[in-house]
Specification:
Layout lengths: L1 H14 L1 H37 L6 E5 L19 H10 L3 E16 L4 E9 L3 H4 L13 H5 L4 E4 L1 H7 L9 E4 L2 E8 L16 E5 H8 L6 E6 L5 H16 L9 E5 H44 L1 H9 L4 H35 L6 H6 L6 H27 L3 H6 L2
Helix pairs in contact: 1-2, 2-9, 2-11, 2-13, 3-8, 9-11, 9-13, 11-13
């Protein structure tokens, strides 16, 4: 039965070659469109998320704020300033917190090497800062460690961009750089990354030293902010609530006063970024699906023409005892075969284009966003499913018409 259907399909293609090729091309072009739109949409979504995560992941940045209400005899409008002891208190009091770090920020810091002098944003931090802020050392170097912190070492970790400016064409690891006139040893440089969210400038231009070293040299008493990472992202609201309760008790503000502390929630920002990327991908996919539906309408029109041209043949088959479902199956099969044949060609070419573009180097941020299309298994399965669905729908109505023909009237058809 299957071989008979295939032979009839190819016979019809040979007779109406031009019409068949145009129909196949319409389906091919539509499937190519949907593959490219979905693949580039998936790549764009991943690029958005990766760029956002370049500034940090699974954490909150907690800043001091200003109270808005009276609390236990204290007036509203008080400034809340955070200190390093607040981090120790939170780590002891809230078991749902996984790790944390302070950040002492110092802008306009002067860095000098034998080749170059520049100013930058410098931070004094704890070792956990690296993981939370997605600042990872390039090969051959390291980030700050606990001994650096305990011994107040004069060591510095540099962003890749500022390291290249200070030591052009050289390996900066182990070199000495003067920070505000004091010598520091470079222990590591940052692995290059894309960063779309900023905290006082890009990390590529940042200098990072131990928090204890910065506090000792500059006499800092108040931190710029705290970095807090929960153990489980499903407990974010609980961690936030406990954070306000613990710091509220210490700094004497109402834990319901959300303005007393300012917070940059990277977990929520990641969720929103993923949803935005998904929305873009859905929109692009919808455009591709509509294009494929238009091609399906063309296939349906062709099948109606085929039914009209083969009316006498259908009448003969019905007269000799062919069942209506056999007639319907033949035309639905031919419709699905047209859609799948053209669709697989489009899928093959689309996949080749996607892999070709993805292999191009990320020479700049524009290429990072448009040069990383992804043809995943779900996209492939979705495309094939849509092709089969459009093929069935395009053939179903002409097939019902064919199966509903009266044998006597069909044999009289000229």
């Amino acid at each position: 039965m299957f071989r008979l259907l295939i032979s009839e399909f190819w016979a019809d293609l040979r007779i109406h070659r031009t019409r068949a090729l145009l129909t196949l091309f319409a389906v091919f072009w539509s499937s190519l469109t949907i593959v490219l739109l979905l693949s580039f949409g998936e790549g764009l979504k991943r690029a958005f998320v990766e760029g956002m995560l370049g500034a940090g992941s699974r954490m909150y940045m907690v800043y001091g704020g200003e109270t808005t209400s009276d609390f236990r005899g204290l007036p509203g409008g008080r400034r809340i300033s955070l200190v390093e002891e607040d981090l120790d208190l939170l780590l002891r009091s809230v078991p749902e917190i996984d790790r944390g770090s302070v950040s002492y920020g110092r802008s306009g810091t002067i860095l000098q090497s034998p080749h170059h002098t520049t100013t930058t944003m410098m931070e004094g931090v704890h070792p956990d800062f690296s993981e939370m802020r997605s600042i990872f050392p390039a090969a051959g170097g390291r980030f700050l460690n606990d001994r650096d912190l305990e011994e107040r070492r004069r060591v510095v970790f540099l962003g890749d961009s500022i390291a290249a400016r200070l030591y052009p064409g050289e390996d900066p690891i182990g070199q000495s750089v003067r920070i505000d006139g004091l010598p520091f040893t470079i222990v590591g440089t940052m692995e290059s990354k894309v960063q779309t969210s900023m905290n006082n400038g890009p990390d590529a231009d940042r200098a990072v030293i131990p928090a204890t070293t910065l506090r000792t040299i500059y006499g800092a008493t108040r931190v710029s902010h705290l970095l807090i990472s929960p153990r489980d992202t499903r407990e974010t609201e609980l961690v936030k609530r406990r954070l306000y309760e613990v710091l509220g008790a210490k700094h004497h503000f109402d834990p319901d006063d959300t303005r007393a502390l300012r917070m940059w929630d990277f977990i929520e920002e990641e969720r929103l970024t993923r949803n935005i990327g998904l929305g873009i991908q859905i929109f692009l996919g919808a455009v591709g699906v509509l294009t494929l539906i238009v091609a399906g309408v063309g296939v349906a029109n062709i099948m109606y023409v085929v039914v009209r041209e083969r009316t006498r043949e259908i009448g003969v088959r019905l007269a000799v005892g062919a069942r209506r479902r056999d007639i319907m199956g033949q035309f639905v099969f031919e419709s699905v075969l047209i859609c799948v044949s053209g669709g697989l060609l489009g899928l093959l070419l689309g996949g080749s284009i996607v892999f070709g573009v993805a292999s191009l180097p990320d020479t700049n941020e524009a290429m990072f966003f448009i040069g990383n299309p992804t043809l995943s298994l779900p996209i492939t399965l979705l495309t094939v499913s849509i092709l089969v669905g459009v093929g069935i729908m395009a053939g179903l109505f002409p097939a019902r018409k064919a199966a509903g023909l009266d044998p006597v009237e069909s044999l009289r058809y000229e």
